[in-house]
Amino acid sequence: MRNKKSLFTKTVALTIGLFLIGGFVSAQTPSYPPEIEAALDSAKGNRPNLERVLKHYAESKDTLMYKAACFLIANMEGHCYATYALRDTLDNEIPFDIFNYSGYGPMIADWEKLDSIYGPLDFGKKDLVNDLDVISDSFLIENIDYAFKAWREKPWAKSLSFENFCEYVLPYRGSNEPLESWRKPLYEKYADLESRMIDPTDPIEAASLINKDVMSWFGFDSIYYFHPTDQGYAEMIRHGKGRCEDMTNMAIYAMRANGLAVTSDYTPFWADAGNNHAWNAIVTAQGKVIPFMGAEAAPGAYTLFHKLAKAYRKTYSKQKDNLVFQEKKQTKIPGWLAGKNYVDVTSSYGEFGNPTIKISATVPD
Predict the structure, then answer these.
(1) Which ranges of the chain would DSSP assign to H, the alpha helix?
(2) Is residue 321 domain-resident?
(3) What is the residue range of 117's domain?
(4) Is residue 119 part of a domain?
(5) What element of type H or E holds 122?
């Protein structure tokens, strides 16, 4: 991981100072620092929900919980859930649902039949549901309360820094899945985990035990390559199957709910094969990052099955060094580089070179 302060450090420090001086206690209309105000303005009609969250934690007198609420709200822009529809080249919507098939074989046979009738088919974005527009105060408060409960109570989590807690435990989503409550049921599911551990202070042992249990009721199914969105928690519980992004999200849910700093690393393209891939990574209190695969392989027992060219890590916070924030950049940025919430972690996965390529063409302004 890079040794630098993330956005939340600056945001929450400024926010807590301004807010506690001139916030809800002494003013009817509280003032907010720019990052929070920008998020509240973007929320439009949903602004009252977010302000109730800020008011709730300001009145609680728990400054860390208030900082955590500020972190989530300041970085919420861009986090969303998208729905998709199968369309032909004329943009006509074609009815298709993988849950109508008994398995991958019958599904592919029907897909090829549809392709022969309508021509090339692809999933296109239908609706975009932004978190800022729909997230409720009760959802955020439950998420924050249970995240802190796990961080403060679980023996393997107590040494985790507040910065890593905010980035890898506190966030309420793993990718672009539907917003659903998963912390409370998964916190309760593993309530006895400590009693089954050899060393209750070891986050790797805790993660391994949780992942072993997840393997018993959730796994991979290639039919989900044709499920156009990342599944939500309820859908994954209902079907017990998914693709690699779903597997990483289920591990994120189960482990974050229990105070483990877990996220997802990914490669947009293998160096020696087609397709992409996502897997998990756990961050220890000492800053060590150990890859694993949710519902498949424990930390320390996972090996990437193709040659890696580039690896990135999903973050909740905005990463201001990313290409999209740079003043001078090309008009069209490749999709995997256009995001605001990722860091390049290629160097964490081995020795990689940095070749210099000389280009004689004139660089445009």
Answers:
(1) 7-22, 34-43, 47-60, 63-74, 104-118, 131-134, 137-153, 162-168, 183-189, 203-215, 233-239, 244-256
(2) no
(3) 83-126
(4) yes
(5) strand 122-130
Residues 6+ apart with CB under 8 A from 305: none
DSSP string, 163-187: HHHHHHTS-S-SSSPPP---HHHHH
Nearest by Cα to 78 from 325, 247, 346:
325
Q: Under the phi-then-psi rule, with left for phi > 0, alpha for psi from -120 to 50, and beta for the rest, what region is 184?
A: alpha
| Residue 232: closest CA among 218, 246, 248, 215 | 246
Write down the mean pLDDT value for the chain: 91
Domain count for the chain: 1
Do the domain assignments include residue 104? Answer: yes
346 Cβ neighbours under 8 A, 6+ residues apart:
308, 309, 310, 311, 312, 352
Whole-model pTM? 0.89
Burial class (CB in 10 A: 0-12, 13-18, 19+), 163: middle
Nearest to 96 by CA among 117, 75, 80: 117
What is the radius of gyration, based on Cα positions, of the chain? 22
End-to-end Cα, the chain, rounded Å: 33
- What pLDDT, in 10s, does the model give residues 207-245? 999 999 999 999 999 999 999 999 999 999 999 999 999
Residue 117 resides in a domain: yes
CA–CA separation, 339 and 322 (whole Å)? 8
Does an H or E element contain 123, and which?
strand 122-130
The 10s digit of each residue's pLDDT in 75-84 is 999 999 999 9
Q: What angle do CA 205, 206, 211 make, to 5 degrees?
A: 95
Statement: residue 22 has pLDDT above 60:
no
| DSSP bridge partners of 134 | none
For residues 292 and 211, the answer to whether their CB atoms sit within 8 Å is yes
Residue 219: partners with Cβ closer than 8 Å, 6 or more residues away: 240, 241, 247, 295, 296
